[in-house]
Automatic annotation (TrEMBL):
Reactions that this protein is recorded to catalyse: GTP + H2O = 7,8-dihydroneopterin 3'-triphosphate + formate + H(+)
Lineage: Bacteria, Pseudomonadati, Verrucomicrobiota, Methylacidimicrobium
Gene: folE2
Biological or metabolic pathway of the protein: Cofactor biosynthesis; 7,8-dihydroneopterin triphosphate biosynthesis; 7,8-dihydroneopterin triphosphate from GTP: step 1/1
EC category name: hydrolase
Sample GO molecular function, one term: GTP cyclohydrolase I activity
Protein name stated in the entry: GTP cyclohydrolase FolE2
Keyword vocabulary terms for this entry: Hydrolase
Organism in which the protein naturally occurs: Methylacidimicrobium tartarophylax
Length: 271
């Protein structure tokens, strides 16, 4: 490789032969922060900042990969990121890095404006979202994940207590593959409708009364929570696969309660 300023040859160490004959499954860059715009369900765009991983496989005979090319590929595709143009990035990675397999992972905060249930007061709630796109030669794969905070109220506590029941904030991590693109908002709504109550950022006293009573009327164990989400995902005609994890940050214990349910290929949804 020639230095453009001086015309001298520079060593290309990455392209040197490696004699250990060990293929590397994933190599590239992680933790790259990049401004992006994401389309929402109303076809508007939301500006946010993503933490990006760009990865490819490396044949056993190459010593290394060219890290600068990952960033060049990402920058060449601009800021507007949507499910349909993620694959153009992974295909460009395959071509630019001469790879059979390429992965693009983007994690970013996504904001929804939510109205309080009684007064209608508006406030923003943030959700952590992850896009994972991959290309395996000519085949592609896409997984969308949303981490959704919810309120859960313990059914056992309600059943045995004369005055109230303990509740807590829970976090549901829902990952899906689908035959057609599903909006981030839709996945969030599926999760929130499966809990005792959604989370809000702004609540006046009438709203707090509403949320407290709603949670009391809809108690769920952590097991109920993942099963409720699974039932709704099973009923969705476009969902092919899912993994649903729930973690309740217990208010009367010094540990968290956890459950996971996953639909595997060929499952009928019953486990």
């Amino acid at each position: 490789m020639k230095n453009q300023d001086h015309g001298t040859l520079l060593a290309d160490c990455q392209s040197e032969q490696d004699h250990r004959r060990i293929r590397i499954d994933r190599v590239g860059v992680k933790g790259l922060r990049h401004p992006i715009e994401v389309r929402d369900r109303s076809f508007a765009t939301q500006s946010t900042v993503a933490t990006v991983s760009l990865l490819v496989d490396l044949p056993h005979h190459f010593k290394g990969t060219h890290m600068s090319r990952f960033v060049e590929v990402l920058n060449a595709h601009g800021r507007l990121i949507h499910v349909k143009n993620l694959f153009s990035i992974v295909h460009a990675l395959q071509k630019r890095l001469d790879a059979e397999v390429a992965h693009l992972i983007m994690e970013f905060p996504y904001f929804l404006e939510k109205r309080a249930p009684a007064t209608g007061a508006e406030g923003l709630v943030d959700y952590q979202v992850r896009f994972e796109a991959a290309a395996y030669r000519t085949e592609t794969d896409f997984v969308m994940t949303a981490v959704v905070p919810v309120t859960t109220l313990c059914p056992c506590s309600k059943a045995i207590s004369d005055r109230g029941a303990h509740n807590q904030r829970g976090y549901v991590t829902a990952s899906i593959r689908s035959s057609e693109p599903i909006w981030i908002e839709e996945l969030i709504e599926i999760v929130e409708s499966s809990a005792s109550s959604p989370i809000y950022s702004l609540l006046k006293r009438p709203d707090e009364k509403f949320v407290t009573e709603q949670a009391f009327d809809h108690p769920v164990f952590v097991e109920d929570l993942v099963r409720n989400v699974a039932v709704r995902l099973n009923a969705h005609c476009d969902v092919l696969w899912y993994r649903v994890e729930a973690e309740n940050m217990e208010s009367i214990h010094n540990h968290a309660a956890y459950a996971l349910v996953e639909k595997h290929s060929g499952d009928n949804g019953g486990g």
